[in-house]
Specification:
Pfam families: HATPase_c, HisKA, PAS. It is an enzyme of class 2 (transferase). It catalyses: ATP + protein L-histidine = ADP + protein N-phospho-L-histidine. InterPro entries: GAF (IPR003018), GAF-like_dom_sf (IPR029016), HATPase_C_sf (IPR036890), HATPase_dom (IPR003594), His_kinase_dom (IPR005467), HisK_dim/P_dom (IPR003661), HisK_dim/P_sf (IPR036097), PAS (IPR000014). One of its GO terms (biological process) is regulation of DNA-templated transcription. With 640 residues, the chain is of the alpha+beta class. The protein has 4 domains: 90 residues, Beta-Lactamase (2-Layer Sandwich); 158 residues, Beta-Lactamase, CATH 3.30.450; 178 residues, PAS domain (Beta-Lactamase, 2-Layer Sandwich); 149 residues, Histidine kinase-like ATPase, C-terminal domain (Heat Shock Protein 90). 43% of the residues lie in helices and 25% in strands. The chain has 17 helices and 23 strands. Helix 13 packs across helix 15. It is rod-shaped, with a radius of gyration of 55 Å. The N and C termini lie far apart (179 Å). 22% of the residues are buried.
């Protein structure tokens, strides 16, 4: 007879189904293993836990297969690191031959990683903040020097305790234009510019644009600072052009993430390169603008610019000097207020044509001066166009024609004088014939009277005076014709005293009219000069005439000749009113005169100076107000 064996369950003990239900209902991931850690049961929570971390239950089983079971009544933990980096902890608890396994995430590892991530986020936020502030700073700078200073502040804030060097170069020539170094730079280490191959590839630098001999590419960038062990660099590249580089080096013992630093430095360099390019463009534009402004201001021409409202926007120095009006007095004023009233009707159509884009050449008008006078100018106008082709204003470039007009008047006057001179020459010829007869007959009568006994001496004296006066007239007419004849510019040996005497003879009528006296103090031993006689006579005629005009009746003209070394000296001194100091430096200028209107042209002294200098000499002046003026002529003596 066969007997049955039955498991007897103590009263009140749960059934296996109840244990299974409890095991499945656990929220904590769990599994049951035997003493060899072979998994016999897995609850749903563990399956969900594994799915949440992207693994299967087999991963847990594999981890348990490599572990050892705890002793009976003991527990220990097994670490399981997933491919994602997540760390799991498996807690093993043993009772008899059954091992219970519970799974959880290592919260300490997660906390640590969260701290690291938080620090990384904070560092990223700080880096972005510094870069943002730097972007604002470089956008506001006014030049390259300020830009470099702003970049240096940003680099120090981003990378403390590091040595760094900022170099800015000319994109075309590669020449160094700015340098900033923080640290002890090696001598001569800042040139030439060496770039790393890796950074060049990351910045898309065009190698064909690199200037030869100024920039080189290398696998490793040489250290620039004393005491550095490692280095990173970033080229400043914008639009494929190189504008410089930033080198950063690490002292021995500094712990830093070099890869991270290089990424940030490249990001910084990209931002700075654009700013450097813009700064250089601004500098170039500023230079060009200043150059053009200086060109307009200093140009040896009259330059005037008006806008569409006919307001003056450019009034250069030549115009200021001509009119005596400063730019502050003129800029912003209507152009019509600067011309004479009688010229405004002529000016209006010219401006209207220029505003339509039409050019006008050789437009003459009269500008007002600061003292209410007028100057005559000639302008050529041209329209200034905007980008779309609209007329923005009018530029007028011209010249002062006041002198030209004055010269035209002088030429007309000179032609009149030439005609009168020709008439005078004819008159002189007509005078010479009868005066020769008078002199001849007077001489014959005088000789007869001397041979006649009992002749009246009084009659002889009268004949002698007639003869002397006739010869004086003949001599004067002969010298006058010689003086009026055009000079051949061929120097001849002339006696200085005789030339001065001839000039005095021509000025006798001026001397008598001014009621002054002439005192001659001639040196008798002055050697002859090599000179054009008529031209020298003209010099002394002008100086004597000016002296007579400068004195009231009763004055005296002193003519002194002397020899000083290899020079002949003539001094023409008057006792007149003298010349004001403010006019003394201008008396040799063409058309400058202190004489009343109608008494002088302002050309005499200028012509005299030219004649003296053409003879290799000098004409100087000394004057004291109230005491008189002395003109000194120095001429080289003839070489034997």
């Amino acid at each position: 007879m066969k007997s049955e064996v039955r498991a007897v369950r103590p009263p009140g003990t749960p059934t296996p189904d109840a244990f299974q239900a409890f095991f499945d209902a656990l929220d904590e991931p769990a599994a049951l293993c035997d003493a060899s850690l072979r998994v016999s049961a897995v609850n749903p929570a563990l399956r969900r836990f594994c799915e949440a971390h992207g693994i299967g239950v087999d991963v847990v089983e594999e981890a348990l297969s490599g572990a050892s079971a705890p002793d009976d009544g003991q527990a220990h933990e097994v670490d399981l690191v997933l491919a994602s980096g997540t760390s799991l902890v498996l807690t093993l608890s043993r009772k008899a031959d059954t091992v219970a396994v519970r799974a959880r995430v290592d919260t300490e590892v997660i906390s640590g990683r969260l701290v690291v991530a938080e620090r990384a986020l904070l560092e990223q936020a700080r880096t972005e903040g510094v870069l943002l502030d730097l972007g604002r700073s470089v956008a506001e700078v006014g030049g390259e020097e300020e830009l470099v200073a702003a970049v240096a502040r940003g680099v120090k804030e981003l990378f403390p305790a590091r040595s760094f060097c900022i170099r800015i170069v000319d994109a075309r020539t590669g020449g160094l234009t700015s340098l900033y170094a923080e640290g002890r730079l090696k001598e001569g280490a800042h040139e030439p510019l060496v770039l790393s191959q890796r950074s060049v590839e990351k910045t898309n630098l065009s190698l064909t644009s690199l200037p030869q001999g100024r920039v080189s590419i290398s696998e490793e960038v040489p250290l620039l600072f004393h005491g550095s062990t490692r280095a990173v660099s970033a080229p400043l590249v914008a639009s494929g052009q190189l504008f410089g580089a930033i080198n950063m080096e690490y002292p021995d013992g500094l712990d830093a993430d070099i890869a991270h630093d290089e990424r940030v430095l490249l990001q910084l360099a990209s931002q700075v390169a654009v700013a450097v390019k813009n700064a250089k463009l601004i500098d170039e534009l500023t230079f060009v603008r200043k150059y053009l402004e200086e060109l307009l201001e200093k140009a040896n021409a009259l330059i005037l610019v008006v806008n569409r409202d006919k307001q003056v926007v450019v009034f250069n120095e030549a115009l200021s000097a001509l009119t005596g009006l400063s730019k502050e007095q003129v800029l912003g004023r209507d152009l019509s207020s600067l011309v004479a009233d009688s010229e405004q009707l002529r000016l209006a159509p010219v401006l209207a044509a220029a505003m339509r884009g039409e050019s006008v050449n050789n437009f003459e008008t009269r500008l007002l001066t600061h003292d209410g006078g007028e100057v005559r100018v000639s302008f050529a106008t041209s329209s200034m166009l905007t980008q779309p082709g609209e007329v923005e204003g009018v530029i007028a470039i011209g010249q002062d024609v006041t002198v030209v007009k004055e010269l035209e008047k002088r030429i007309i006057h000179a032609e009149k004088l030439a005609s009168i001179g020709q008439l005078a020459a004819s008159v002189v010829h007509e005078i010479n014939n009868p005066m020769t007869a008078v002199a001849t007959y007077a001489d014959a009568l005088l000789q007869r009277s001397r041979l006649t006994p009992g002749a009246n001496p009084a009659d002889q004296e009268k004949l002698r005076k007639i003869l002397e006066s006739s010869h004086r007239i003949l001599r004067f007419t002969r010298d006058l014709v010689s003086y009026a004849r055009p000079a051949q510019d061929r120097p001849e040996r002339v006696a200085l005293n005789a030339v001065v005497d001839m000039a005095v003879g021509f000025c006798e009528h001026v001397v008598s009219q001014a009621r002054v006296t002439v005192h001659r103090e001639y040196a008798g031993d002055v050697p002859p000069l090599a000179a054009v006689r008529a031209n020298l006579v003209q010099v002394f005629v002008n100086l004597i005439t000016n002296a007579c005009h400068a004195m009231p009746p009763g004055g005296a003209v002193h003519l002194v000749t002397a020899q000083d070394g290899q020079e002949a000296v003539v001094r023409v001194r008057d006792t007149g009113t003298g010349i004001e100091p403010r006019n003394l430096s201008r008396i040799f200028e063409p058309f400058f005169t202190t004489k009343p209107e109608g008494r002088g042209t302002g050309l005499g002294l200028s012509i005299c100076q030219g004649i003296v200098e053409n003879h290799g000499g000098r004409l100087t002046v000394e004057s004291t107000v109230g005491q008189g003026t002395t003109f000194t002529v120095r001429l080289p003596l003839a070489v034997d």
